[in-house]
């Protein structure tokens, strides 16, 4: 009788084990056959965003889905990562976009499971970004008062950048680190630093790229009230006689009508973008 009971227990264990393996196979095979859900895609982009914020040079992620759709998703995920605007940091969104230099993507796998490797190049390291953050917070604490209006904050930041940054005519340095810490940068460094300082000061700001007088250029738009205004700290910082600079306001809080020598790239000239960031008809 006892042997019979032991036999039944063993038989039950085998049956349960078989059911478990069958269920596991069903789940795994379903995973291999299926595509990533929208939630999984969002998590993929979120992970990419976080790793790019950390300036990781090699980022490895897992993709599950149709090979034909993989390439578009994987390449497009970088632009989607740029669009994440975490309110707890000013080092993502436009900042991350414009300190990112290049991406090289490789993919390998079988079935519907692929390993995606992003080899990234950045214009500054994570340590350099930390230095920028530290100095930005220090400067804003010294120069921005709680009772300042939006206009006063914008002017203070604009004047600080024009006063302390010298334009790098060689265009060898083009990142916020060189503008803030080394004191010299080309236009992208000016614009991205202004974005960070405005964001830290609570002023809505974006970086705009395009063409100015026949040259590739970067500037900003900032928001006062319900309207946005163009601001170009680079061109308000002309190199004067004997290499000295002086603050001017020729490109400070301007309407598009007063900024005819600046032409936006298509990305920033679309109806959707224009509607999201309506520029004032008249300069401030």
Topology (SSEs and partners):
Elements: H1 2-33, H2 38-53, E1 58-64, H3 67-82, H4 94-99, E2 100-110, E3 113-122, H5 126-143, H6 150-164, E4 166-167, H7 176-182, E5 184-185, H8 187-200, E6 205-212, E7 215-224, E8 227-231, E9 252-254, E10 262-264, H9 271-276
Parallel strand pairs: 4-5
Antiparallel strand pairs: 1-3, 2-3, 6-7, 6-10, 7-8, 8-9
Helix pairs in contact: 2-3, 5-7, 6-8, 7-8
Count helical runs.
9
- What CATH architecture of the largest domain do you see? Roll
Along the chain, the helix and strand elements come as HHEHHEEHHEHEHEEEEEH
Give me the CATH fold name of the largest domain: C8orf32 fold
Report how far the terminal alpha carbons are from each other. Answer: 96 Å
Structural class: alpha+beta
- Assembly type: single chain
| Largest sheet, spatial ordering of strands | 9-8-7-6-10
Major pleated sheet:
5 strands, antiparallel
Low-confidence stretches: 2-31
Give the fraction of residues assigned to helices: 40-55%
Shape: globular
Give the beta-strand count. 10
How would you describe the overall organization of this protein?
There is one protein chain. By secondary structure, this protein is of the alpha+beta class. The chain folds into two domains: 38-122, no CATH class; 126-276, C8orf32 fold. The chain has helices at residues 2-33, 38-53, 67-82, 94-99, 126-143, 150-164, 176-182, 187-200, 271-276, and strands spanning 58-64, 100-110, 113-122, 166-167, 184-185, 205-212, 215-224, 227-231, 252-254, 262-264.
């Amino acid at each position: 009788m006892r042997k019979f009971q032991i036999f039944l227990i063993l038989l039950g264990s085998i049956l349960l084990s078989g059911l478990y393996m069958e269920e596991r196979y069903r789940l795994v095979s379903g995973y291999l056959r299926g595509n990533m859900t929208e939630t999984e895609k969002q998590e993929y982009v979120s992970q990419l965003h976080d790793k790019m914020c950390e300036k990781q040079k090699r980022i490895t992620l897992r993709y599950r889905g149709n090979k034909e759709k993989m390439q578009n998703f994987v390449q497009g995920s970088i632009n989607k990562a740029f669009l994440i605007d975490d309110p707890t940091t000013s080092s993502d969104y436009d900042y991350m976009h414009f300190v990112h230099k290049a991406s090289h993507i490789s993919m390998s796998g079988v079935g519907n499971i692929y390993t995606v490797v992003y080899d990234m190049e950045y214009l500054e390291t994570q340590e350099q970004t930390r230095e920028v953050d530290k100095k930005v917070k220090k400067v804003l604490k010294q120069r921005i008062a709680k009772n300042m209006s939006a206009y006063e904050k914008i002017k203070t930041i604009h004047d600080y950048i024009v006063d302390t940054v010298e334009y790098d005519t060689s265009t060898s340095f083009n990142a916020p680190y060189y503008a803030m810490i080394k004191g010299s940068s080309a236009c992208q460094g000016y614009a991205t630093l202004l974005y960070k300082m405005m964001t830290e000061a609570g002023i809505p700001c974006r970086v705009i790229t395009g063409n100015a007088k026949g040259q590739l250029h970067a500037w900003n738009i900032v928001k006062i009230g319900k309207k946005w205004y163009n601001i170009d700290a680079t061109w308000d910082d002309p190199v004067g006689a004997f290499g000295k600079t002086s603050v001017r306001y020729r490109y400070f809080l301007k309407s598009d009508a007063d900024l005819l020598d600046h032409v936006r790239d298509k990305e920033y000239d679309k109806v959707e973008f224009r509607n999201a960031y309506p520029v004032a008809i008249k300069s401030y």
